[in-house]
Amino acid sequence: MLVFVLNAGSSSLKYQLIDAKTSEVKASGIVERIGIDGVLKHEIGNNRKLTFEAHIQTHKEAIELILQTLTHDDTKIIDSIDEIDAIGHRVAHGGEYFKNSVVVDDEVIKKIEELIPLAPLHNPANILGMKICRELMPNTPNVAVFDTAFHQTMPEVHFLFPVPHEDYTEHHLRKYGFHGTSHYYVSNEAIKLLENKKDLRIIVCHLGNGSSVCAVRDGKSLNTTMGLTPLGGLMMGTRSGDIDPGIIPYLMEKKNMDTHQIIDYLNKKSGILGVSGISSDLRDIISAAKDGDQRAQVTIDMMCNRVKKYICSYAGLLGGVDALCFTAGIGENSDLIREKVCHNLEFMGIEIDKDKNSSKESKVKEISKDSSKTKIFVIPTNEELVIAQDTYKLVG
Ligand code: AMP
């Protein structure tokens, strides 16, 4: 069963064509800078990479070009778009309404629209992706897979904020959490590695440009670091993560900022970029720190300390940790960050093996010492596969 997985952002579109039964990725790619110079980067299987400078101006043009690339000329891998059995959409915010993936119909789109105030940057683009696919492929079913759904098992004690209760009942103010498909995939892979034992206590560190930690008990999300929006929790590429809320009015007054400007400041100019003054890409910071840049070193230490803070907090909630998992761009690729995060956690049974940690293997690997009570794993995430499999389960 061929599933076209679509992750529509405000100016970009990521996609994969996946055989949901075999997990084979037939093609994948990204359209970036839609409305500016609109470039399509397309990959066939795992090897043939192509770039089209297409000056794509709208999301519809982008999807049309992707479908044309899949079905025409020497890039063709299917004869017609009718061979696509279903479309799986990544949707940022499902609020409290969507606890699982759903088949898209008019009612579902209306509900996702109602949730726009909770995800003003992401949900509109996700809805646009669904509407265009329904128009271009009217006979193909669409499924929405929500980034928040996995965290709907969090109990009230973890999802409520310490503010007056009517803000939750009247304004839906609560922690929702994000990266749900990634936390689900990685924790589920860890459960398999631990031979499907019952009641496992797992902590997943999804460390990428956006980052979050999740405590998983018996396969269910118990707590996670992102909050009402993806701005909460860890220090990220350009996002501040948790800060003293008093900073917001202080800065607004000092720097004469309005609401839009302060949100932009905390989302796009803070985190690793803001503290280092160099870049949001941790590779640049690691290389600057190696060259003796003190601020780069502080940036790395701040980032790792915050991950550590949540690992310790969640270990306390879970009453111990059977597996600590690292995933996403930083978690999968940086042995330095994994080592720093695990440093000094030996007292709670987390012992990293330096040699295993520095092995360059890009597959799943265990990097804990034999004596470590907690298994430490690196598990490459695969959100697209979860979306394809959920889509297959619902319409297959
Ligand atoms: P993601 O959002 O999961 O795609 O992760 C992207 C981020 O991973 C980039 O911004 C980089 O900071 C980071 N990254 C990728 N490779 C490495 C590496 N070898 N060392 C440190 N950071 C890395």
From TrEMBL:
Cofactor binding summary note: Mg(2+). Can also accept Mn(2+).
Any one Pfam family here would be Acetate_kinase
Q: Name one GO molecular function term.
A: kinase activity
| Co-factor requirement | Mg(2+); Mn(2+)
- Catalysed reaction, written as an equation: acetate + ATP = acetyl phosphate + ADP
Entry coiled-coil feature ranges: none
Q: Where does ATP bind?
A: 14, 206-210, 281-283, 329-333
Q: Where is this site: Transition state stabilizer?
A: 179, 239
**Principal cellular location given in the protein's record:** cytoplasm
The pathway to which it is assigned is: Metabolic intermediate biosynthesis; acetyl-CoA biosynthesis; acetyl-CoA from acetate: step 1/2
What start and end residues bound the annotated signal peptide? none
UniProt cross-references to NCBIfam families, sorted A to Z = ackA
| UniProt similarity note | Belongs to the acetokinase family.
Protein name as annotated: Acetate kinase
Provenance organism: Aliarcobacter cibarius
